[in-house]
From TrEMBL:
Keywords: Membrane, Transmembrane, Transmembrane helix. The chain crosses the membrane at residues 65-84, 96-114, 126-143, 150-169, 208-229, 241-259, 271-290, 302-323, 359-377. Residues 21-239 form the Heparan-alpha-glucosaminide N-acetyltransferase catalytic domain. This is DUF5009 domain-containing protein.
Amino acid sequence: MQSSVSTRSVSTQRTEVSPARLLSLDFFRGLTVAAMVTVNNPGDWGHIYAPLEHAPWNGWTPTDLIFPFFLFIVGVSVTFALGRTDGAEKGVIGKIVKRSVTLFLLGLFLNFFPKFDISIVRIPGVLQRIALVYLACSLIFLKTTPRQQAYIFCGLLVGYWLSMTVIPVPGVGYANLEPETNLAAWFDRTILTPAHVYKPAKVWDPEGLFSTLPAIGTGLLGMLTGTWLRSDRSAAEKVAWLFAAGCLTTLGGLVWDGFFPINKALWTSSYVLLAGGLAMLGLALCYWLIDVQHYKRGILPFVAFGVNAITVFFLSGLIPRIMNLIHITQPDGTELGSKEYLYRTFIAPFFTEPKNASLAGALTFVLIWFGILWWMYRKNVIIKV
């Protein structure tokens, strides 16, 4: 998901930016992954501030924007990674497939660990969806023009909307958007069976197969944005039009919300537009400040996150699970996983408000990763999938 061009290659021009690599994209990716690690690792799952939780069903919170932001960035990155292919398409496609399979298997490994029980393992997941979106967007980028990509984007969103709101759900008899009886849920439990979906949901999966189609649309929106940023237009023109497009796309999502509700679990078309529009605005701001105005104060820790994004996401999911396998006996004879023990011993006692303690636990985890990733960045250690 990262261009092969050196991370620290930044144009020295004040008004024009080389399309080889955007430091702002690394920063935006790093900021997104740092936020993802924060919300995935609270000190106490029972005490979380509302903005750091997902919306129960319809609607959205800031946390609901993190994953689509990352998929949007995947799409942008595709244009920079594949935009200079030399025509050796067969070799390029092989690398794309290999990377996609590797990502999917890493996600599957997280779901397997530590029980490794194939009869109940969840098959979908975050990395699995990233793999599928990356695969689809990369192949579409190689085989189509930007105009055709825009048509595919619109077709996916409109087609998904019509499918979810018009097609009667087998066994239910009518189209609906309820958690367990919608078409995407039926598709998940039919293809994957309830044994292999998200356990809290039981009969459907928030990263399920059918809802991956509009998620590809999120990646395509990023691709179109990346193509625009790689164009020969002036930096000011790029930023102005990107801000305008971001505002209109966000507005489109809010309007569509009136008859196809914004919903992360279903990855509704209105949600694609809302999150994609806000991602466009965020990237436009970062691009203007970092790559055009060359404002770099305080950005490098997030750049360090950005250049090793998949590594930190994978390990930040794996390490807590390993820590919870290591049990520490308390004075009263009860046992705690080492992660929970460290939180209760060294963080929670310093806070009277449980939500503050839980947030402090998450931020401590992120700060530890900042230290590790900063060292890797300084040593130019970049682990690519």
